Each structure stands twice: as structure tokens, then as C-alpha cells.
Amino acid sequence: MNHHAFTFSGADLRALGSGALWWPDQALLCVSDLHLGKSERVARRSGQSLPPYETRDTLTRLAADLERTGARAVICLGDSFDDAGAAASLPGEDRAAIAALQAGRRWIWIAGNHDPAPVDFGGEQRGDVVLGPLIFRHIATADGTGEVSGHYHPKADVQARGRRISRPAFLLDINRLILPAYGTYTGGLHSHSDALRGLMAPSAIAILTGPVPTCVPMPR
User: Fold this and answer.
1) Fewer Cβ atoms within 10 A, N terminus or C terminus of the chain?
2) How far is 172 from 196, CA to CA, in rounded Å?
3) 135: helix, coil or strand?
């Protein structure tokens, strides 16, 4: 399992190359910003057609991470659905896939700005979750400590072998950890954006996702 191991607020964590966070001591897998049903929402609001396979691709990758880790609990850090209409419009086969992933596991949906209301799926709906030294919520706060969040879809650019590489990335400093978006059609916000530079301490690092997760000083 390709990962980068690190300690945050006393918790031994693994940043997986897929963009998921694995906490072995809690048998917990955490993912953020799945944005399930995005192609349906885009078509409904703009008339633009996108290949309608992003939900299945996201769920397939999540199933693989659950299989590899053997996770007994899952936290989805908000914006799991692209909006309420997207959640309601998921096809039966995708609903069945979600139910299969939930079977035998504790599953927590944290509310996001795209999906603030409870959704009609199994599991628990929460605003945030405190587990040991960590608090899980959708959007980072100015005074957060031991805070694990998402929302910003961070990505980082690095120079390698004379070319620029841009990848989704975990951002980490002493107080907060921001996860990359896990969903297939999600895009990203550069780590050098004002919003992320303002949140993250000067000592922050970025852990780039991919086949070999790579840790670098957060590009500013």
C-alpha cells in the first residue's frame, strides 16, 4: 500500500497515494469531497454533458482502499454529494454500491457546504466528529487544533526533471491537516493561493498524491 507515514497531534497516520487518510490504530479511513453525482448536477444546471462515470469510478477506488486497509470505520469529510439533487438522483446501482461499502462498518457523513442537510443513505450524519486527539470537520477554522478537514481541494506544484508536476496534495502543519479531494471530477486549489497560505503555518508541508506519495515544503 503506497503511503506516506506521519504523526499529527500524537496520532500515527498514513497519507495514501489515492488521497485517502488511514489511521491504523483506529482502523479508520477518511476521505473528503467525493462530490458524487457531479456529472448529473452539471447537466441539470448548465446543460453541459460530462461522461456520467465519475460516481462509479470514485466508489470503485474507495472500495479498493477499504479492501487494502481493512477499515472498520469511515469518515467522509463533507461534500460527499455534489448537491441534494445529485444525491437524490443517484442510480440504484450506485446506491447499492454505497450500501455494500457501508456493510459491517461505522460510516459517518460530515455535512459540507454542498450537502449541508441529512442525506437518504445509511450511516450517521454529523457536523463534526471528535476522535481521540483529532477533530474531523469539513472546513478548517482559524483556531483549529488537531483539526482534519477538506473543502479546499488542495493541490501542489513541484519541479521535477525540468518540468512542472501538479498533483492533489495533503497539507499539514502543527495544528491542521487538509485532505485533497477524493472525487473524480473535483479539480483543485493551488497551495500558493491566498486562502491556503493564510491558513497554513510557514512550516507547513505538502504530501503529493500518486503512485509514490512525496513530501515537500508546501509551495507558496
Assistant:
1) N
2) 11
3) strand
Asked if 40 contacts 86 with a C-beta cutoff of 8 angstroms, the reply is yes
What sections of the chain are H helices per DSSP? Answer: 38-46, 54-69, 84-88, 92-102, 194-199
Within the chain, how many helices (H) and strands (E) appear?
A: 5, 16
Residue that the C-alpha cell 463534526 belongs to: 128
Q: What is the pLDDT of residues 98-156, one digit of tens each?
A: 999 999 999 999 999 988 877 789 999 999 999 999 999 999 999 999 999 999 999 99
Q: Which residues, including other chains, have CB under 8 Å from residue 58's CB and lie 6 or more apart? A: 34, 35, 36, 182, 183, 184
- Determine the 3-state secondary structure of 58 from DSSP: helix
Mean pLDDT throughout 61-90? 90
DSSP letter, residue 89: T
Residue type, 62: L
* Rounded distance between C-alpha atoms, residue 51 and residue 63, angstroms: 21
Can you give the pTM of this predicted structure?
A: 0.94
The angle subtended at Cα 218 by Cα 213 and Cα 65, nearest 5°, is 30
What percent of the chain stands above pLDDT 70? 92
Report the sign of the C-alpha dihedral through residues 7, 11, 12, 16, in that order: negative
- Cell numbers describing residue 34: 467525493
Closest CA to 112 of 154, 140, 93, 135: 140
